[in-house]
Amino acid sequence: MSNKIDLTLNINGQDHAVSVEPRKTLVDAIREDCALTGTHIGCEHGVCGACTVIVGGEAVRSCLMFAVQAQGKPIRTVEGLASGKTLHPLQRSFMAHHGLQCGFCTPGFLMLAVNTLEKNPAIGDEELLDVLSSNLCRCTGYQNIILAVKAAREDMRTKEEAVAG
Amino acid sequence: MNEQSGGTKWIGMPVERLEDPPLVTGRGRFAGDINFPRQLHMRTDAARALPGVVAVWTAADITDVPPIDFREGPIEKLAPYRQPVLAIDRLRYVGEPVAAVFAHDPYVAEDAADLVTMEVEELPVLLDARDEPGEFSFGRDTEATILTQGYGDVEAVFKSAAHVVELKLTSGRHSGVPLECRGAIGRYDASRDVLELHGAAKVPHRNKELIARMLKRAPASVQCYESHVGGGFGIRGEIYPEDILVCVAAIRFERPVKWIEDRREHLIAANHSRNQHHHIKAACTDEGEILAIDDVIHHDNGAYVRTHATRVAMMTCGVLPGPYRVPGAYRAICHFRLTNKTPAATYRAPGRFETTFVRERLVDAIAHQLRLDPIHVRRLNAVRVDEMPFKRPLEALGEEIHFDSGDYHALLDITLNHVDWQNLNKELAARREQGEMVGVGLAMFVEKAGLGPADGVRIQVDTSGEIEVITGGASIGQGFETVMAQVAAECIGADMTKMRVTHGNTERIEHGIGAHASRATVMTASATRVAALKVREKALDIAAELMQSPVDTLDIVNGEVVIADRPGGPSMTLGAIAAALGPSSKARGDREPGLSAEGWFYTDHQVYPYGNHLAVVQVDPDTGGVKVLRYVVGYDIGRAINPTLVKGQIAGGFAQGLGGALMEEFTYNERGDPLAVTFADYLMPTVRETPDLEIILREDYPSPLNPLGIKGAGESGVNAVGAAIASAIDDAIGIPGAITVLPVTPQRLKAIIDGKR
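ok -> structure tokens follow
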């Protein structure tokens, strides 16, 4: 079981050369081999979404994927959201609206929401609730998460319009 | 002006949280993120030699380690029922640790654990606390103890009562289930002979004492460190077998030992809660006044008595009457019984979620049986504002219950007016006429918070002007740092965003109460206030000399001492004052060195916030599914240090209550195998199941028991959800008293509806 495979994971634009067993999950490789512990493990069976990262443009559960499967695809994690000291609008919005308490589910919700709003900045409320219902939070009762994502949706839309105009 | 800063007000403001920047950027440090060089990884289970495995332990390898002791100290009668760190001779529940495997790599540890085989002779299981107790060990049965609370002559009042109302009710087994599973990292520093437990939570100081007691070490040689904690809810942070195992292994191997729980383990090994059966009777007058209550409780504590001992059951007996007077007599007899299920203990609003369900079901039943309006019955029985403070000869957490202040009737009116109660009922009745199953339910409750007797905080200002608030509290995600910073900043006259709040680190402060029983804001914030006012006084005292202006002309505004009526005049930063108070500073004179102070807050009694919950639900007759259309929480918190945080606590608690009312249940098959071992079987509310919550947050009755008037926030959102939803479902399906068991799963409700047809 120690037949390790050498591979390169590109996370937040940076290449990480790692040597992992084929059975190693993507989340374990991100956390242990790339030392990016912002991505969390909540259930390891694909329900809670705490480990959500963006792989090749899609929000995925990194506990349900092997590290070898992510080779060659750009991976984005919570550590890559801010640019320098400037927070991503969603990070700012989660803070402004108390969209987190313990913060454990937060990276997963952030990556899910970022991916959703990037793909569809004009997403409607109902569809947004459907998407957000794919992750679990045990602290907030969700209200402030919904508020935060809706506010960021408006914020990102206004910024896009400003850039376009 | 020097009693209070004329600068920025922080208390009562809905400010952003100090905690958030690392948490939104992936820089949090949870137990799983902590690593030490040369660490080993532990799995508990049952293993054989495999490359990379360092050791496999069973009970025979740790005969020097006693069972997990009670948090508050030894209790002789219950001692035989404590859980051994690894099972001895008998396995009492599925999920009980049998063996511990230590390996270089977590994957290898898990492989090895999978290889463990056991020869187990299957014995009959005991799964219902109402069944006849069985043998626990030689000469001891599974009824560990019987608890009672009460007053008055119950038989006499019942004998002469006009009406007796009787109910049998059950609260199902569910639990806190934080999103982060448990984790513990033991580390032994042989150079200093200090044992460290990382990943501690909730009550690090208590745990330090408990570990020291169990491992026969001096408390000074044991230190606990809390990192980020992914949700507490009462169940996390108690001492479990794994915490002791990593400590013992760290000492024996002289290597760090890390254990991170997986979700399946969590659902079968971490504390369960809530499972009680009540057979309750009320003696009433024709008008619906409750004269006496007689309740027989079967409390299902699972397989062992863990750190809390009988706390939940005793609390149940004491708080059951809630806001109602019950003047004649009261008796609660609780059969505290063990079953072959995961051990149970506290979960957010322990004893209150259950008793509010039972008591409010009882009030609804009284109203129905006597053909009275349920709101009228509540009003008639609720303690009136002119009866405050109201003393009741029952106890909660070892203290006699004294409701400190409040107007239960006024808050009830506020909630009813908020929804336009009469019209709401008419609208729902009209919809029912049209064939919809919709209904409304209301429940009243009294919470309790701020258990004393004492908490201390140290505040120190460094020469850069940064203020550190060192507490023995704990942060489990509730915004602890933010609250303490708000109080300290306002009392000193400083900028809260420049504060550093320390918690959960036994090396930094000698005493601490942690974060439980909604204590943190009441106790730790009150102590923070005392320390902050002392720091302010010290700063002003020396500033008066250095600035050559009398103390009463000075103020501290945003961390700077100024002359209050001379804007743009001379000023001194707190950093400069801290330097002037340095041990070798001449300016200090004969003052005590350091711009720092310790503050203690003492109290003899808990505070009792109160509120009501109102639910509007719709039932799908075909599936038995329940949709919550509207939910209102009216709550008087006395004083909200940060209203947004308080509302967050209420909303989060509500979602957990909703799970316990409709979805979440740990079930077992007839052999005692747990059936809820993944998030596909143990269903928790998502965005889709959790409706918008309307919170009416009131500060009408600040507590007279602490200077800030605080009453505690953590458990009000969960307290009455089961009660309110049960009542609303009754109304929706048109069967008074239909709901007797929580959670009201679609299967259960469908059977009730089909039974009616």
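The mean pLDDT of chain B is 96.
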